[in-house]
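Could you help me review a protein record that somebody else here produced? This is what I was given.
***
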Amino acid sequence: MKALVAVALTAFFAGFTCAAPNNLLDMADKLDKLDRQDFQGAIETADSCTRARNFSCTETALAKALKVANSAKDRDRLTVARQLLDNERKRMEEELRAQQLERDRLAEAARRRQIEDQNRRDQQEAADAQRSADQRRQANMREQNRREQSAEANRSNQRIVESRSKEQERSRRQDELANQRIRDQQKVQDDNRRRSAQAEQDRSAQLEQDRRTRVEADRQAELRRQQAYEKESAANDRQQLAQANTQRANEEKARLERERQRDQERAREQREREQQIAIEKRKQSDEEAKRRKQDEDVQRKLLAEQAAVKARADKERAANDKRMQQDNYIQAMMQGIRLKSRSCPGDKGLHYIVGIRPRIQPEVYSCIDVHYTAICPGSNSGISGVVKTFVGAGTDCYLGDTAKINPTPACKPEEVRVVVDRVTPGC
């Protein structure tokens, strides 16, 4: 862009005076400064957007910087800015991947805990259902045994009552027969009647005793059966209670073992999480320190480049200012110096150059050389020469400069026209 502008301005101002090149340089320098300012502002915006992770903003700023990147250093700086953008994108992608891995790991751990909790609940519900079924089965067995014992007792009592009724009926019939026999035999044998009555009484007593014995035996047998049943039922209850206690103890032991294993697993997972977090923190801290160091290195490099660019710009500006001041000084001298030809006493026939010069402050050069051309009237060529260390204090032959014109012009000294060709630094 700078070259195109310079060419265009050169073509446009080709017909200007000798001051035009300086104006073109000024304009080109100003355009360069504007480009550098735009480039530096775009690069700073890109770096700021990169640090804020606003990558679209960074791309826009880099595209703007690319348009005004006129030098190899500008392109190097643009490459550094793009490298910073790529590094920051990679860091953000790594952070997002680490966060996704942590979320996946936590979700998986939560899912495993839910499965374990559901398995424990299912096992507990199955155990509760089994205990309830066992308890109902045991209650049903006890109720069945009680009903059977009650039915057996009722049947035994019924048999006793029936036996008693039959015995009483038999006794009643026997008594009636005996009474009948007694009444029949009473008339014949009183003694036999008495003996028969006594025998009958003895037999009734024996029958009653036998009946009582049988009733007592039945009662004792029933009692023994009841006691055996109760003993067996108590033994079964104790065995079932022992089994239930053993089962509960085993279940409690298993539960405690599961709790212990679960606590150990949770502690292990907690340690792993803490270790992972510590590793992630150390990694993040290392990456942050590395990123800060990289940013600091880049910043130092940028500052160094900016300082170097500023120093070069200052140096170029100072050189341009000095060169411009020198050019202006020489130009002012050329415009202000007045030379003429004269003769001096004692040197008849010789021509001398004398003249004065303006006193311009500040004095850029302490001494100057003035190049001239002496031309006679009607001549197409002149005599060139130089007045070394021109002082320009006067036009006489004693106080000012006197430079002999060699060869001597053919015309008179006062007829010679002296033209200042150029002024150069002397001494």
Notes: Residues 1-21 have pLDDT under 50 and may be disordered. Strands lie at 338-342, 352-356, 368-375, 383-390, 393-394, 403-404, 417-425. The first strand starts at residue 338 and ends at 342.
